[in-house]
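Dear colleague,

As promised, here are the two records you asked about, laid out in our usual form so they can be pasted straight into your sheet.

NAME FIELD: protein one
SEQUENCE, THEN STRUCTURE:
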Amino acid sequence: MAMEGRVDGLSLLQLPLSVVVSSVEDLVCDLVLFLIFIIVHRLHARRAVMDKCTGTAHFLLSSFLLSCLFGLSLGTELSFVTCGSVVKLLNVKHNVRLHSHDVRYGSGSGQQSVTGVTTVEDSNSYWNVRGTSGALCHRGTPVKCGQTIRLTHLNTGRNLHSHYFTSPLSSNQEVSAFGEEGEGDHLDEWTVQCGGSVWEREEAVRFQHASTDTLLSVTGEQYGRPIHGQREVHAMTGSSQHSLWRAMEGVYMKPSESPLGNMDYSHPLHTEF
């Protein structure tokens, strides 16, 4: 995952002690989050291949040990999405998860392709919720309705992106993954459209491309080889059922306080396997 606000080794010697401590704390948090994600994903994959009896018992034991080690909340859901969380996004209409991989489009921009997949367990469907280059989003802060964010593909470090190239199957606006190590350009920015004050996990939301005012959508077109059966993801004007998305599995970072006021949250982190 991309780390915001890095400080190199030489400049550390020139900074006040409080700043150095804060930078080290951020680095440790990023490393812990990455380790937790790897463990969660491996437990999820192991659960999928085990039989119902032995597999369930082993998974529950592993989950218990994981919760003891890292203080994970396995029983109580965090009800909203926060910055720094690593999540999967489900298109409600077509029941596919937003996905990317190191496969480039053969037409249009030639950038890394973005698709929709029916497979739940695929690790290439995780996205990191981040602020923009001009408006950082601190870890654990609830994402507000109307807030502009970036979604960074966890495995490749490229951002969800769109532009005026034509998508290969539906001839809508192409959606790709762009940038390196989480840094691209202004075309990586998406505004969360939802009905309340913050992005609720149970709510179906829309993502509007900030530069072109189009909506992240799926209309059902399927690719052939080499990504046979995966659905085209594109951007299009006009809201519809095709542009509704819901936050699903992932690692959700705890907020420091409630978006409705100063309230204490007893669970620092929530994971969905």
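NAME FIELD: protein two
SEQUENCE, THEN STRUCTURE:
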Amino acid sequence: FDLRAGFYRCVFAPNPVMEGSIREHEPASSDATVLDPFRMTCLTPALQHGAATTSLHVVQNSRKVAFAGSFGGDQFFFHHVVELISGPLHYNLGPATGSTILVVSGHGFDEFYDPTSQYTCVFSRSDGTMHTLAKILNFSTITCITPAWGRHHSDSWGSKDFEQKPLGPVSVQLFKGDKPVPRTHAKEDEFLFYSVIRNISAFNAG
């Protein structure tokens, strides 16, 4: 590689011939940085389904650059694998009665390719935890339903209108089976639940 030659790009393309590969719609590319005459670096793409056998070739001014050494030719194949999930939980607010949809966005959700996998959202609070099943919508989106984890305030001496008040932060962690999913950004996200003060009318008899 010529340090003075200017612009290099790495082009990643799917390899539908290789067994076990996953087709992608379009090749992906990234700028390459030449480290020395024998090495360069470039970023691998975020493949749609998390893993694929992929070919790589280097382009300089729209021309393929031939590799020397053990690979030879102008391309080689590698199996690209990303970790299961890398993405934040979208911040949301949930009512005490639960049933609010919490969206988890990322990539590598593999239920379509591993039907034995089951994801759960674990909601943790100072007084305990609750588990709800997560639903996989597609390769990049999971949803889970917030649990009915509110408290009801009762006042036997008068009446109060319906209102909502903060109950405190609840942390959320995504699990696959009985193991936490690595590299989620969910562990510090807060999902605020609200306690409900119901409309109560009371009086003393006598």
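A couple of things worth noting about protein two: The CA atoms of residues 51 and 80 lie 5 Å apart. The longest strand covers residues 128-138.

Best,
R.
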